[in-house]
Specification:
By secondary structure, this protein is an all-alpha fold. The protein has 10 helices and no strands.
Length: 217
C-alpha cells in the first residue's frame, strides 16, 4: 500500500510539473505575441519608435517602489506594452501628422483609449491589464479622458504609467518640437502634481530617477 501511494504521489508531482511547464510555455507565447503587437504599433506610429520598450522597465521599477504586489506586475507590464494599442484605429493622416493636431483631430485621437478597451476587453487573460490602456489619459483633477475620473478613482497602474509616459514623451524629439532637458521635464512634472498627476507618484518617480542617476554616476 505504501509503495502504491508513493507511486501515485510521484505521478501527481510529475503531472503538476508538466502542467506548470505548459502554463509557462503558454504565458511566454502570450507575452511574445504582446511584444509583437507593440512593435507593430511602433512601426506604424513614427513618433513612438521604441517608446513601449523604454517605458516598460521604468514603470515596473516605479510600481515596485510604490509597493505594488509582485502578482500585479505582470499585468502592469502587459498594460504598458499595450498602452497605445487603440491607436491602431486612428487614421494615418492624424497619427503621423508632422504638426500639432487641430481640435477636430484631437477629438479623433482621444478615442484611442476606448478603442483599446474594445480591442482588449474580450480577451480574458488581458482584462487585468486594461487599466493602463484604458485609463492612462485620465488626470488627477478630473479633466482627463475617456471617463473623466478624478484622484484615486483612477486605477493605480494608470496613475503610475501616466507619469512615466509623459516623462519619456517630453524627453523625445517630435517633428513639431525638440526634446526637453531632464530638468525641464522634472519641473513640469512637479508643476502638474495635483493637476495631471498623483502628487505622491510624482515624488516617488523623481526619487527613482535620482537614485538611478546616482547609481550611474
Amino acid at each position: 500500500m505504501l509503495a502504491g501511494q508513493a507511486a501515485i504521489a510521484i505521478e501527481d508531482i510529475q503531472l503538476l510539473t508538466d502542467l506548470q511547464y505548459h502554463i509557462n510555455e503558454l504565458q511566454a507565447a502570450y507575452d511574445t505575441t504582446l511584444q509583437g503587437w507593440a512593435k507593430a504599433l511602433e512601426i506604424r506610429d513614427a513618433e513612438t519608435q521604441n517608446h513601449s520598450h523604454r517605458v516598460t522597465q521604468i514603470t515596473l521599477d516605479l510600481a515596485k517602489k510604490l509597493g505594488v504586489e509582485e502578482s500585479q506586475l505582470i499585468h502592469i507590464r502587459r498594460g504598458t506594452l499595450l498602452h497605445d494599442i487603440g491607436k491602431m484605429g486612428i487614421p494615418d493622416a492624424i497619427l503621423n501628422k508632422p504638426a500639432p493636431l487641430t481640435p477636430e483631430e484631437w477629438e479623433v485621437m482621444r478615442r484611442h483609449p476606448q478603442m483599446a478597451f474594445d480591442i482588449l476587453s474580450g480577451i480574458p487573460f488581458l482584462k487585468p491589464a486594461l487599466d493602463i490602456p484604458y485609463s492612462h489619459h485620465e488626470k488627477w483633477d478630473g479633466s482627463g479622458y475617456p471617463q473623466g475620473l478624478k484622484g484615486e478613482e483612477i486605477p493605480l497602474a494608470a496613475r503610475i504609467f501616466a507619469v512615466v509616459d509623459v516623462w519619456d514623451a517630453l524627453l523625445s524629439d517630435r517633428p513639431y518640437r525638440p526634446a526637453w532637458k531632464k530638468h525641464e521635464v522634472i519641473t513640469y512634472l512637479r508643476e502638474q502634481a495635483g493637476k495631471h498627476f498623483d502628487p505622491k507618484i510624482v515624488e516617488a518617480f523623481i526619487e527613482l530617477i535620482s537614485e538611478e542617476e546616482g547609481q550611474d554616476g
